[in-house]
Design goal:
The strands form 4 sheets. The protein has a 5-stranded mixed sheet with strand order 5-1-6-15-7, sandwiched between helices. Strands 11-10-12-9-13 form a 5-stranded mixed sheet, with helices on both faces. The chain folds into 2 domains: 133 residues, D-Maltodextrin-Binding Protein, domain 2, CATH 3.40.190.10; 87 residues, Periplasmic binding protein-like II (D-Maltodextrin-Binding Protein, domain 2, 3-Layer(aba) Sandwich). It has 9 helices and 15 strands. It is α/β, with parallel strands linked by helices. Strand 2 and strand 3 form a beta hairpin. The longest helix is centred in the first third of the chain and has 22 residues. Helix 1 crosses helix 2, helix 3 packs across helix 8 and helix 6 crosses helix 7. The termini are far apart. The chain binds arginine. The site of arginine (ARG) has 14 residues, from strand 2.
């Protein structure tokens, strides 16, 4: 009896997933590595699909032996707990950060966990969980840099790097209004800090924990300006209206916050990361 219900549920899920995919018009949001079989696994209802952009240590990065295959980090640990709480296997789709919200809203992935700041703009297209981490933007500069001590200094004819589509991009472009010709945009923080290292850029504006990790790994330093950069809250994005998954995610997150597990992960990964 139980088995039959399960088969029925799976068939229904498969049918729904196919019609949802058709609704996307087959158009790719770009850069996603979800193979066709990834979509059919989603339809089986067995695997829980997390979309992320694994170039954002300590939240998600690629390593030899991670929690799920090569993927490791705070967000991967959180996702694993969510999947475990539902008795489902976690599948990770590594894609461009810029396409994550679209992948959530078209149902290509079940949830985006990517150190994603819950912004009002994004909340128009996806639903956000409770926040699980508070970050702020920082400036990654050369180890012996002395002329950048505040965000204001960036406007002073400085070459500034950001990652395309990150909140840091928006802040540098719109709020600080650094002249467009002085802004360089890259797809990954890991890549753009190389330009600070080789002197092509004066600073990279990026999220605090990631900025610190990238600075430490590359012999660079971090300059903070809490007065200029507001705090940002990371949250998990799900498809609008998917309250069942959202409730489950919130329950797991709240448990991890209350038990201090998120804090422990933050400490563990900031120290352990590469
Ligand atoms: N917090 C920033 C934002 O939401 C950057 C997130 C980047 N995350 C990533 N996994 N690459 O825009």
């Amino acid at each position: 009896m139980k088995k039959l219900t399960k088969v029925l549920a799976m068939t229904l899920a498969a049918a729904m997933s196919i019609s949802m995919l058709a609704a996307c018009g087959g158009g790719s949001t770009g850069g996603d590595t979800a193979a066709d079989d990834g979509a059919s696994t989603a339809a089986s209802g067995e695997k829980l699909i997390m979309g992320t952009n694994a170039a954002f240590p300590p939240f998600e990065f690629v390593t030899t032996q991670g929690i799920v295959g090569e993927f490791d980090g705070i967000d991967v640990a959180i996702a694993k707990n969510i999947a475990d709480s539902m008795g489902r296997e976690l599948q990770i789709e590594d894609q461009e950060f810029d396409g994550l919200c679209a992948a959530v809203s078209t149902g290509k992935i079940d949830m985006a966990i990517a150190g994603m700041t819950a912004t009002p703009e994004r909340a128009q297209n996806v639903d956000f969980s409770i926040p699980y981490y508070v970050a702020t933007q920082v400036m990654v500069v050369g180890a012996d840099n002395t002329d950048i001590t505040s965000a204001e200094d960036l406007k002073n004819d400085k070459k500034v790097g950001v990652v395309l589509g990150y909140t840091g991009d928006n802040i540098v472009t719109s709020e600080l209004a650094v002249p467009e010709e002085n802004i360089t945009r890259a797809n990954r923080g890991i890549d753009i800090v190389q330009d600070v290292k080789n002197g092509k850029l004066d600073a990279v504006v990026i999220d605090s924990a990631t900025g610190k990790a990238l600075a430490a790994n590359n012999g660079l330093k971090v300059v903070e300006d809490p007065a200029a950069f507001e705090s940002e809250e990371y949250a998990i994005a799900v498809q609008k209206g998917n309250t069942e998954l959202l409730d489950q995610i919130n329950t797991v997150l709240q448990g991890m916050i209350d038990s201090g597990e998120i804090d422990e992960l933050a400490v563990k990964y900031s120290e352990a990361e590469e």
